[in-house]
Amino acid sequence: MNLKTCFSCVLCGLLLSLAAASTSSAQVANSQVPNPTATYRSVPSGAKLKFQGVVIDRSADTFTIRDRTRTDYQVRLTDNTSVRANGGFLKSGKKYPVTDLVRGLIVEVEGVGDSQGELVADKIRFRESDMRAATTTDVRVTPVEENQKKVAGQIDELYSIAQEARQQVAAVNERVTAVDNRVSALDDYDVEESIAVTFALNSAVLSPEARQQLDAFATKALATSGYMIEISGHTDSTGSVARNMRLSRDRAESVVEYLTVTHKIPARRFITPMGYGKSDAVADNSTAAGRAQNRRVEVKILANRGLRGNTSGSAKTNTARP
Description:
Helices cover 32% and strands 23% of the residues. The protein has helices at residues 3-20, 128-137, 155-172, 178-184, 208-222, 241-263, 288-294, 305-309, and strands at 26-27, 48-58, 62-67, 72-76, 82-85, 106-113, 119-126, 150-151, 189-198, 227-233, 274-275, 296-304. α1 packs antiparallel against α3 (155-172) and α5 (208-222) crosses α6 (241-263).
């Protein structure tokens, strides 16, 4: 039995464990790969709904929520969707970006049905403790860890199973980065475009050359159907670990800010930007030229295969790294 087969067996076992738990007392993280033939409860156009459920699937503009009766609804996100945690100062709660709505999060959704039978979300609310539990399972390494859930009396067992599956996937591909795995978990995105913009020493300021690269990148992204953007920041080996982590995150945020403000790319199109410090060098840090290459931010356009398949004249198809 090869490693991929072992991984499939472990994943199936996790699914059976999760199905046995009560959704009324658990934080659910559905483990299934998005099913193109899945059916959803249609919401009448103009009908106002407010209900609680678990996020079981997520794409760029929509997510699937399963309520306590195991009925699935398709929820659409817009720039006007308010995403907040319950409580806080004046009970307004902390505001979150829509990209933080991960699988397994228990949410309360309020919205209005549209002509497609989807629920257009006006408000999304959740508890901070549920967000922390869901984020813990969404560790961007393997699909299995998107399938974890917090279940009373079973959390230790679920983490043990997820750890075993993660080790098996790591043996198949040791060099897959955390962000790559988060995208490949969806199994329906291709890398359409990839660039690397470099920075001066100890700087997170975009150079004129970097801005030109991002201008061309934004033009391609806006012309791509069903796209998301993956951004990862890096540094050379000079400086402390903590300082390099902060600098790599600042560089990634500089790219996000430029694309969002200058080219009006919606925030929901971005996968949460990550900083990796000096941990993922692409050149020799013992030379000045190598260090210059390592002071970079990698930016990728991820195109949804399903949406592109339904669009005539779609862009070229590339194969994303596993």
